[in-house]
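Appendix B, example 12.
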Amino acid sequence: MNQNPPVDIQSVRDRLRDTAPGHPKRTAAARVLSLLDAFADRGEPLTLSEIARRADLSLTTTHRLAHEVREWGGLDLDEEGRYCLSRKILELASASTEDLRIRELALPHLVDLQRRTGLTVNLSVREGHDVMYLEALRAHPNYTGQNRMGGRLPLHVTATGLVLLANSGRQVQDEYLATPLKRYTRFTKTRPEELHETMDAARREGILRLDGAVAAGAGSIAAPVPDALGRVDVAVGAIYAHRNPEPHGLPDLVLATARRIARARSERPVLDPRTIAFNRSQAGLG
């Protein structure tokens, strides 16, 4: 007598959920992209449940897709069984994006600035209304904030963000300042006239310092990194804690780093993106 195999009730429920009326119908490719996008917010390792929630996928679908992406090489598992993006994702991106080519040029100079100051240093670009970090060399490896490669913060709360906004043209500035600006601390500048004054000073002096905008006990300093035509689309910055003595000559060190990166951009040779991993290993960054 033939017996039917047992029915996996949870799998049936998940399939019904994914195809239920009102639930967005997505192609297989869209579901995979949603899974990868789950890591965009913080970039930290995630459990299957966390991926499913962020990607708005059933747990069964998430498990299947995560397994397939891991088999392809796009995901790794950490010691606690959580998923994280693999180096293969970075390698694919670095082979095709201008931002990561700039990062490759800047990395030796960022390493030098970090070693001289002992501070967290970063390289940033403007992405819409956010500052996005192309690279962040952290003073403390266990740091889990947004100051990391791919991390984002609103433009008005970071020195690099305001440097980039200051050099983006009046229309872009007015559009940004017309939006509701989040206040993180009592020191966060949110009034348009105050921010315009800060940006005007940054353009005059070539450097910008911002204290307590994200956390009351910390500040940041940044300088623009123009391209060969003088357009400012990149900024370099450093983050410091008020409780610690400021490294001697910090503004000059940041300015010098920005100028060296700008010079490297104007003299840029054709780069092999595979050297990103080499430069990081040589700098002791893994």
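The mean pLDDT is 84. Residues 98-117 form the longest helix (20 residues).
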